[in-house]
Amino acid sequence: MNAPAQGKDTSVGLAARAADFPILARPVHGRRLAYLDNGATTQKPQWVIDAQARYYSESNANIHRGVHWLSQHSTDLYDRGRERVRSFLNAAHAGEIVFTRGTTEAINLVAFSWGRVNLKAGDEILLSGMEHHSNIVPWQMVAQQTGAVIKVIPVTDDGELDMAAFSTLLGDRTRFVGVCHVSNALGTVNPVEEIIRQARAVGAVVLVDGAQAVAHQAVDVQALGCDFYAFSGHKLYGPTGIGALYGRKELLDAMPPWQGGGDMIHTVSFEGSTYAESPQKFEAGTPNIAGVIGLEAAIAYVQEIGLDRIAAHEDELLKYACEALGAIPGMRFIGQAKQRAGIVSFVVQGIHPHDLGTILDMEGVAIRAGHHCAMPLMTRFGLPGTARASFALYNSRADVDALVAGLHKARRLFGMEMERSA
Length: 422
Known about the structure:
Elements: E1 34-35, H1 46-58, H2 69-89, E2 97-100, H3 103-118, E3 124-128, H4 137-146, E4 149-153, H5 163-169, E5 174-180, H6 192-201, E6 205-209, H7 221-224, E7 228-232, E8 243-247, H8 249-254, E9 265-269, E10 272-275, H9 289-305, H10 307-326, E11 331-333, E12 343-348, H11 353-362, E13 365-366, E14 368-370, H12 375-380, E15 386-390, H13 397-413
Parallel strand pairs: 1-13, 3-4, 3-5, 5-6, 6-7
Antiparallel strand pairs: 2-8, 7-8, 9-10, 11-12, 12-15, 14-15
């Protein structure tokens, strides 16, 4: 497969790429769809849809086990997907890339394979106060099983991590640090390089949740120096049910398998079994082969456009949105970190976020409303939830304008402003 043809749009004109995404041409409630729920999942370009369809129609077979041509061909495609992810993250070895169902499964793999073996009573697990539930609950489960203690890096009023508090929390008992690269609820870009540097100085292992980062900026795991990095394909214009975990080879090699079954073994007898090498020992059973192929196509798509161009486009949209939304009476932004990715989280005085989401939906505007699987963070701000608009490469100022118009309509419906003259 070759990459799609190079477009001629500028870094702030990538919205023309919306034509690559067939679902964006579908009206919703008789309105043009303004899809601003990309933090939950991105839409898929025809390039990715075609890649998966082509696999099922031309190449479908199980991998690693067959001597026939289709099996060998499917194995080659699967291995090419692993190499694409390795290059995308700049991992040193393809064997440091484990395919998972997504970020959640990747974090659970680390928690239950590395955590249960290496943590003991009194050890400290340090998590940030803006983590997604998937980087909280697995560590709570492991802490209950091992006697380890969870400590939390506080979040400032601006939605940034309190780095002074982080430095104070780090100590001789810190064994693990888990932090999101970009907050899914606030869009805050965390200083993960500095977090990793300080954590490694006390001998702690660091996992970075990159689910909200990889579609918006280049990631170099060797430059970061992290031990683990996880992301999901469906937030990167790829399929659902596929993601990847980067793990340093020496750590993966020392970790026991998480699941048992076919394709993760070397030998099996009723007296005992021996296991395959990393990463195969963490990929029990028939994997999501089509998902890997779709993920490989999605990465090729964003690489062809350029993550720097995508970031510039989304940054321009974020600035435009913040200015336009800020003019709405009763608007309150939640989280105004100096470094943010394409996410704006807000509440409107007197209107519940779920009501906002419902009214906007009737206007063809798709946003997310609720706690965003970050309930501790919502508690920190004294809120049940927020409305969240999140941007992707195919969004435009017209989408922001539709959001603003929908919010004005919500205020009118709640009796907060009169109908504006044309």
